[in-house]
Structures are given as C-alpha cells and as structure tokens.
Design goal:
The protein has about 270 residues and is an alpha/beta fold. About 40% of the residues lie in helices and about 5% in strands. The structure holds 3'-phosphate-adenosine-5'-phosphate sulfate.
Length: about 270
C-alpha cells in the first residue's frame, strides 16, 4: 500500500480528507477538488466524486472502483478520502508528510445521519431500529468504530502532523471563511471570484443537484436513495427531531464520561 499512496508524494503534496462517516467527507472532498482545480466547475464535473477522490480503504462490489488501484494510477497531488481512525492510516502518509483535513461533526447529528445512511447503504450492516442503532453508536459497534475514539484520536495528533482539524458546524456557519482556511492549508492563492464560485458550487443545494457529487450515479444494489437520499438534509441540529428526552439524557451523560479530559471542543448539543 505504501508505494501506491506515496511514491509521488515526497514533497508532501498529497492531501487526505478524512473523518468518521457522515460528517461531511463528500463536502470537503468537493471543496478540495475545486481548490486544486482553481475553481473550475466544469473540470470538477469530469467524473463522479468516487472517481475524482479515491476512497483509500474501499474494496467493495464492482463497478465501484477499488481505492488503492485508483491511487496507483493517479498523479500527484492526489486527493484521497478515508474514514480510518488515526492509528490505522498507513505510516507512509506521515513519512511523506502528507496533509490531512479532518472534519468532525456533532455526535448526535453524526449519529442521525449515519443511521439514515445505513438504511440506504446495502453493503453495510442493516442499522436495525433507531433505538438499537443509538445503542450501537454509543458502544462503538458501527462501521469504523467508536465516534468518540475517532474524533479524539485525530484531535490528539493534530499538532504533530500537517493536520487541519475542521468542524462541520463551522462550515455551515461561515463557508467562505472555512474554504479560505482549506485554501491556505493547501498553499493555494485563488482570486476572490474563484473562492465565491467554490462556496456556491459546494452548498448543500448545489451538491444535491449535481450528479457528479450526489452519489446518484452508483447502482441501486449498493445505495438505495429511495430509502433515504445520500444528500439528505445537510443541516445542524437535526438530532432534535429524533432523540427523545430520555435518550438525550442518557447520551449526554455517557458523552461526558467518554470525552472526560479531552480538550476537543464540545461536539454534542449544537
Ligand atoms: S460518507 O458516505 O460517510 O462519506 O458521508 P459524508 O459525506 O461524510 O456525510 C454525508 C452527510 O454530509 C451531508 N453533506 C452536506 N452538508 C452540507 N453541505 C454540503 N455541501 C454537504 N454535502 C454532503 C449529507 O447531506 C449528509 O448529512 P445528512 O445530515 O444526512 O444530510
């Protein structure tokens, strides 16, 4: 895997967009692709997001591409997606000083989004009822493991490597400011007009309407948008529509316990 990912990245030009699933990976992937392509919208429609941004650990059913095979045939700088927790990322990323953009999202919205994603995603385990899924999430029994360990694991490493740690909620609140942060991190200097284009092209509405970003091009046997569309709501605070008062109390109590001692800003009641 090492040679696949990094042989062209000795200058540290590769960039990895990473996060627990359903935190906004697709959103940040599209932003990075737009920045690397100088805000050229047509160029960013050259293929579906999963062809433009290989998913490092993905090796699912055909016709979807295998991440490492795509990367082997791609020139640097490569924009790579992963959901891996920090300790599972290939060491070659750090040996080659690759840049990583991590996006964290408030735990409850992440859970709600992940629940709907697993309803539609036919290659991940069936989520069960909302109550069952809530329990699985709390206990880290969902694909890619514990949300708590994931966000803390990357937070603890953010000053030791070239990691830009971002928050979904900040991206919603001030998308232009966050796009400019990413631009600076990638050492790109685009004109204000291009930045505005990127912000517009990567709004929830624009991406939902864009077949190259909304995953409607993948076969139904893999993801059934009729059960719940991939671009579902794209909002902050949707958890309030799902948690009962009792579930909220249990979640908050458990959150405090699991996150005790972490310097990570609270990611639970936005
Ligand atoms: S995946 O499959 O795990 O990589 O999913 P991921 O892309 O990380 O997360 C999907 C959620 O991100 C929302 N999304 C967006 N929100 C705001 N703006 C934009 N542009 C955007 N693009 C994707 C998407 O709607 C999913 O969140 P929910 O809350 O389910 O709507």
């Amino acid at each position: 895997m090492k040679s696949h990912i990094n042989e062209d990245d000795s200058a540290g030009t590769g960039s990895l967009t990473t996060e627990m699933p359903n935190k906004g990976t697709t959103w940040i992937s599209e932003i990075v692709d737009m920045i690397l392509n100088d805000g050229d919208i047509e160029r960013c429609k050259r293929g579906p997001i999963y062809e433009r941004v290989p998913f490092l650990e993905f090796a699912g059913p055909k016709p979807l591409p295998v991440g490492t095979e795509q990367l082997a045939n791609m020139a640097s700088p490569r924009n790579v997606k992963t959901h891996l927790p920090f300790h599972l990322v290939p060491k070659s990323f750090w040996e080659h000083d690759c840049k990583v953009i991590y996006v964290a999202r408030n735990a409850k919205d992440n859970l709600v989004s992940y629940y709907h994603f697993d309803l539609s995603n036919r290659i991940q385990p069936w989520p069960g009822t909302w109550e069952e899924y809530l329990e699985k999430f709390i206990n880290g029994k969902v694909p890619f493991g514990s949300w708590y360990e994931h966000v803390k694991g990357w937070w603890d490493q953010k000053d030791k490597h070239r990691i830009l740690y971002m928050f979904y909620e900040d991206m919603k609140k001030d998308p232009k400011q966050e796009v400019m942060k990413v631009m600076k991190f990638l050492e790109k200097d685009l004109a204000d007009e291009s930045v505005n284009k990127i912000v517009h092209h990567t709004t929830f509405e624009a991406m939902k309407a864009n077949p190259m970003a909304n995953y409607t091009t993948i076969p139904e046997f893999f993801f059934d948008h009729k059960l719940s569309p991939f671009m579902r709501k794209g909002i902050v605070g949707d958890w309030k529509n799902y948690f009962t008062v009792a579930q909220n109390e249990i979640f908050d109590k458990d959150y405090q316990k699991k996150m005790a001692g972490s310097m990570l800003p609270l990611l639970v009641n936005t």
